[in-house]
Design a protein that fits this description.
It is a single chain. This protein has about 850 residues and is mainly beta. The protein is built from 5 helices and 44 strands. The strands form 7 sheets. Strands 11, 13, 14, 16, 17, 19, 24, 25, 26, 27, 29 and 31 form a 12-stranded antiparallel β-sheet that branches. Strands 6-1-2-5-4-3-7 form a 7-stranded antiparallel β-sheet. The protein has a 7-stranded antiparallel β-sheet with strand order 15-18-28-20-21-22-23, with no helix packed on it. Strand 40 and strand 41 form a beta hairpin. The longest helix is centred in the N-terminal third of the chain and has 17 residues.
């Protein structure tokens, strides 16, 4: 008989353990079988009949019948034996009692056991057991009870093996099997469906004394990062003579940049040439109304040209009147405007939700117009009339914006063929240009109602004055120093070419309290036993393969970090933020990166995932359509400087993050608003997507008191906003949600804590929360996520990933299952 059973077909029901066979003849009561359907394995709890069995867990797939299957017995020879015994029983019928053979002659009397305790019957040792009746493999048979009370005779174990079943791994079990060896039969005990234990590495006691050492690379400027939290103390400083310590004086400047697009006859995309915007920001076509004339593209009504987001950054602030204002911008358009007397959109730099600039001819045929947009309002600035304009001829038209940095509005100038027309015009408002703003020709945010026919374009350009900071470095000596200058101290190591020994700088507040900073111009030194690097293991093939790009986490990105919040400032010492020394792993266009926090002996690594620049050049504004957003199955190894593995980042059962047997789309039940209903028996296990994250900590966090949390944390139930109070959500920035069956998203608001909850727990949390908006955000049927977290707030001291928001909370790339869609704070394992 074949080892594997596949006769007939099976029928299964979603969320049920019962399986029905058609044309099957299964061995009844045989334990230890896997039911395999379409490559997925399902453990069998019991075979109830020739065409009926029970699975160990409810079937998670869709209800179906007539499915091909395969039995994979864990002990195939025993399964074959069990099948043959069933065949004999079918043939012999009532002549055979399958559970017991015919009675044999009486054997000799056994030895008399000792007297029982407290009047109980004595229980003797089992001796002389030489044979017993045959039985089907796995069937009921002889039960051997061994006495265990003190003084009772027992059996002597000549060899033994101990297996520890982890109490926190409910799905783990113990397997036993026997094999013949040259010296006898070897019985092996082992755990099944249980992860390898985490490395047992002695851990340093947690020490949150802070980071007193500043590291920097020779040939660079190294900020000391001193922060005094608004202190009004009188400070003095003592400078090490061997290091060039300087005060960095920063001055705001405007840097001129320019980009040009030539609209030749070679076809779109028309490339961007220059330094004002990214080179990938070429012009593309939308529609079919395009011609070519004189080597130039001609666009007609109903069609337009557009770029992706230009990524222009003019700085953001809380002032809605001035935020994201460009210092200067000159819009240039060269080509032929048809002599129709209609307005045309020559250049539209716009983000609909924030603002922009729209440039084109005015309807009267002799003037130009610039529209200034901000927060839904528009101001029209029209030039003086000029005979320089000649419709129907190839001309260069320009509009120039110049900001008034100390007051309202700004100035606007207009040009034809390089000559200024009319007087400078004053605007009362300022344009607002966001990073997501894109350029269009003959349309406004895709609307072609103001487009024209026969618009011939030779080229267009943007001259952009970008805000920047210019640094000058001033020498400093021992003695009194202002708090502002103290916080501006840097090491000017530009002339240093080799690693230097450690030097010390001290500063004193009010002549009483002295602070010491160790300065190392050279590499960060991490002692053995402390997290030094992260190694990515690619489990795509089922075997972990270490990626060659190992992340050595010793490159300081910010030092002497401290909470700027007045209440939290004294609650935590300073820390250092670190990045990898070299490039990060990239697999299938997705980068696997890490950011770290070091504070005393405490280390925190936050792993994140995002498309690399080649896959998403306009990230985070690019279009994710058609791009792979799921990471491959993987684990992370945390190692010290000697390569000793300190911890593994993996699923709780030892599987890789994004293991191949987990479905990327939810297949359970939904509520009336399309939200997945999570229960204890129907858990949410999504795949990890780009922009998700997972946090590893070297030590358990030290908690603030509940009183401190209520005093310092802005909300009782900490929530992270994603969408704008809508009834749906997005998948970590993945715009394909529900487009290809994915339901792997996040709710609009989510309370954060350590442990996952269920659908009904969420409703209970909404009823008990102190959030005054609970009626809108937490009631049944609204804003629930597929994986939700109650507000068991564990604000921690060694936090650091968001060091200057004053929240005391754990940072998250996207709040969801760690490594499988988001950033739950992980500890030693996932």
């Amino acid at each position: 008989m074949a080892i594997f059973e596949s006769t007939g077909t099976v029928a299964l029901t979603n969320n049920s353990t019962q399986v029905t066979g058609a044309g099957t003849n299964w061995a009844v009561n045989y334990p230890g079988v896997l039911l395999i359907i379409e490559g997925m394995s399902y453990p069998v709890a019991s075979i109830n009949g020739a065409n009926s069995l029970t699975l160990a867990k409810p079937f998670s797939g869709a209800t179906a019948s007539g499915l091909d299957y395969t039995f994979a017995p864990l002990q195939p020879d025993n399964y074959n034996l069990s099948v043959k015994v069933n065949e004999i029983i079918d043939i012999a019928g009532d002549l055979v009692d399958a559970s017991r053979g015919p009675a044999g002659p009486a054997g000799p009397a056994g030895a008399t056991g000792p007297a029982g305790k407290n009047g109980d019957v004595g229980f003797g040792a089992v001796i002389g057991l030489t044979e017993y009746a045959g039985q089907p493999a796995g069937g009921s048979g002889v039960n051997l009870i061994v006495p265990v009370a003190t003084g009772d005779p027992g059996i002597t174990l000549t060899q033994s093996s101990q297996v520890v079943l982890p109490y926190d791994k409910p799905n783990a079990g113990i397997g036993l099997w026997i094999k013949a060896t040259t010296s006898g039969y070897a019985i092996t005990l082992g755990l099944t469906n249980a992860p390898l234990p985490q490395p047992e590495v002695p851990s340093e006691p947690i020490d949150l004394s802070g980071s007193s050492t500043i590291y920097g690379t020779p040939g660079t400027i190294i900020p000391l990062g001193i922060f005094v939290g608004g202190s009004s103390a009188d400070f003095t400083v003592n400078i090490p003579e061997a290091l060039p310590i300087r005060i960095e004086r920063k001055t705001g400047i405007v840097v001129p940049t320019s980009t040009k697009w030539t609209m030749g006859g070679t076809g779109a995309p028309y490339p961007a040439v220059g330094d004002a915007v990214p080179s990938m920001a070429g012009f593309n076509k939308s529609g079919t109304g395009f011609d070519f004339r004189n080597g130039h593209v001609v666009v007609n009504n109903g069609s337009y040209l557009f770029t992706d987001a230009l990524g222009l950054d003019f700085g953001s602030s809380a002032n809605e009147v001035t935020t994201q204002t460009p210092p200067t911008m000159r819009m240039k358009w060269k080509g032929v405007i048809p002599n129709t007397g209609a307005e045309a959109i020559l250049m539209n730099l716009m983000d609909y939700s924030t603002g922009g600039l729209t440039f084109g001819p005015y309807w009267d045929g002799s003037t130009l117009q610039l529209k200034i947009h901000r927060n839904g309002s528009t101001e029209n600035i029209t030039s003086d009339s000029s005979d320089l304009r000649a419709l129907g001829t190839n001309q260069l038209y320009e509009a120039e914006w110049i900001d008034n940095p100390t007051g309202a509005g700004g100035s606007v100038n207009f040009y034809v063929n390089g000559t200024k027309i009319g007087e400078t015009k004053q605007a009362t408002s300022k344009p607002r240009i966001a990073s997501v703003a894109a350029l269009e020709i003959n349309a406004s945010v895709g609307n072609t109602s103001q487009g024209v026919n026969n618009l011939e374009i030779e080229y267009l350009a943007l001259d952009v004055g970008k805000p920047a900071v210019q640094s000058n470095f001033e020498a400093v000596s021992d003695g009194p120093i202002t708090s502002a200058d103290l916080q501006a101290l840097v090491v000017d190591a530009r002339a240093i070419t080799t690693n230097q020994p450690a030097y010390h700088l001290t500063y004193t507040a009010n002549g009483i309290q002295t602070y010491d900073i160790e300065i190392v111009v050279g590499e960060m030194v991490v002692p053995a036993g402390r997290a030094y690097k992260a190694v990515l293991e690619d489990w795509s093939t089922g075997v972990g393969v270490a990626h060659p790009a190992q992340l050595v986490m010793t490159k300081p990105s910010a030092q002497n970090c401290k909470f700027e919040d007045a209440n939290l400032y004294t609650s935590q010492p300073t820390w250092t933020e670190v990045l990898p020394q070299g490039p990060v792993p990239v697999i299938n266009g997705i980068a696997y990166y890490c950011e770290g926090i070091r504070i005393g002996t405490y280390v925190q690594f936050q792993f994140g995932y995002d498309w690399d620049a080649a896959t998403m050049p306009y990230n985070p504004f690019g279009d994710p359509t058609g791009k792979d957003s799921y990471m491959v199955p993987h684990k992370w190894r945390i190692e010290d400087v000697n390569g000793t593995v300190l911890s593994r980042i993996e699923m709780p059962n030892g599987e890789p993050l994004n293991s191949a047997n987990r479905k990327p789309a939810w297949q359970g039940s939904y509520d009336g608003r399309g939200v997945a209903i999570i229960t204890a028996n129907n858990q949410w296990n999504p795949f990890g997507t780009t922009r998700s994250g997972v946090i590893w900590r070297s030590h358990e966090p030290v908690a603030y008191s509940q009183a401190d949390v209520w005093k310092n944390v802005p909300a009782y139930d900490m929530r992270v906003p994603f969408a704008a109070k809508t009834g749906f959500s997005v998948n970590g920035g993945d715009a394909r949600v529900f487009g290809d069956g994915q339901a792997n998203g996040f709710a609009n608001y989510r309370a954060m804590s350590w442990e996952p909850t269920t659908y009904n727990d969420i409703i209970t949390a909404g009823a008990n929360t102190q959030d005054p908006w609970k009626g809108q955000r937490l009631r049944g049927g609204r804003h629930r996520s597929e994986r939700w977290y109650l507000a068991e707030i564990h604000a921690v001291q060694p936090d650091g990933a968001q060091p200057r928001d004053g929240s005391g909370r754990c940072a998250r790339r996207s709040p969801d299952h760690a490594g499988n869609g988001g950033g739950v704070c992980s500890r030693r394992e996932r």
